[in-house]
Amino acid sequence: MTNDTAPTDPAPEPSRPFIAAERVSPGVRVAAAWSWRLLLIGVAVVTVGWLFIRFEDVTVPVTLALLFAALLHPLVAWATGKGLGRATAAVAAVVLAVLVVLGVLAFVVQQSVAGGPELAAEFSQTIDDTRNWLATGPLKIDSDQLHAVSNEMTTWIKAHESFIASHALSTAGLFSRIGAGFLLTVFLLLFFLYDGRGMWNFVTKAVPAAGRERVRGAGAAGFHTLEQYVKATVLVAAIDSIIIGIGLAALGVPLVLPLVVIIFLGAFIPIVGSFVAGFLAVLVALTTQGWLNAVIVLCILVFVMAFEGHILQPFVLGNAVKLHPVAVIVAIALGIMLAGIVGGVLAVPLVAFLDTALRWYPGRPAPVRKDSRLTRWIRRRTVGAADTGRPAPPTADAGADGATDAGPPATGG
Asked: Is 358 inside any structural domain?
C-alpha cells in the first residue's frame, strides 16, 4: 500500500529583517513609533505657524473675522428671529461692532494724549527720586557712577538716533497695513454673518464625498464651541477689567479708563493676559504714587487672577469649553513663539475648536448641554425653569445625529 499523501514542505525560515525586528524590545519599537509621529506633528505645527506669519496680512483678518462672527452670530440670529432680514441684521451687527471698536480706540488715544504730559513729568520726577534714594539711601551708590550710567544711556540713544528715526518712519507703512487688514476683516465678517453656512458648504465640496459629512459636522460642532468660548471670554474680561478699574480709581491712579481697556483686551489671552497687561497699571502706580500703591495694585491683580481661575471661569463657562490649564499655557506659549501676540490671542480658541471638531464623528448622539451656573441662575430668574442638563435642541438642518449641517462660521440662513 502506497502513501499518496504529498510530503509537506518545511516551514520557511523567517527572513533576516523579521528576526532583527523581533530582537528589538517592545518598548523601543513603541518609542520609535511615537517618535516619528510626534516629529511629523511638530513639523506640521511649525509649518502652519510659518505659513500663518508668511501670509499674516490675510490670515490674521480671516481669523479675527471668525472670532467676531462667533461673537455676533447670536445677535444676528436673534434679529432674524424677530423678522429682520438676514442681510439687514448682518449689516447692523457689523456696523455696531465697528462703531464700538473705533469708539473705544478713539477714547483710549484721547485719554492717553491728554494725560501723557502729566504722566511723563511724574515719570521724570520718579526717576530723580530713585536716583536720590540710590545715592543717599542704604545702598549708598556713588553719584558719579549714577551719572556715568545716565551718560551711557544718553550716548546710546544719540548713537542710534538714525535707527529710531527710520523705525518711526516705518510706522506709516504699519498703519497702512493695519487699515487694509481692518477693512478686510469687516468685509469678511459681513459675509460670514450673512452666508457663513453657504460658504462653508462650498469650501467642503473639495472634500471627498465619503468624508464630507464628517468635516461639515465637525466644523459645526467646533464653531459652536468657539461661540461659547468667545462669549464667556468677553464676559470674564469685562468683569476682570471692572474690578481692577475700581481698585485703580479708589487709589487715585491716573489714566484709569485707558488702563481698564488695555486690561480688557489683555484678558483675551487666558490666565496670563490680564496679569501681564495689569503690570502696566503697576508701572503707572509706581511712577505716579510710589511703591506702596504699586504693591497694592499688584495685590489686586493677584486677587483678580485667583478669582478668575477658581470662581469666575467655572461659574461663567461651565462645561461649554473644558481645557486643562496646562493645555492652555502650552497653547499660548506655542502661539506666541510661532506668531507673536496674535498667535497668543488665537491659540486657545483654536485649541478649543480643534478639541471639539476632532472628537466629533457622524452618528454621535447630541451632546448633553450642561449650562454654566451663571446661565442657570439667569434662566431661573427669568423663566423659572429648572435646568438639570439636557440634549441640545436640534435645528431645522439637524440630521439624525443631532449635528447641524454647517461649519465655521455656521451663521448663514
From this structure: yes
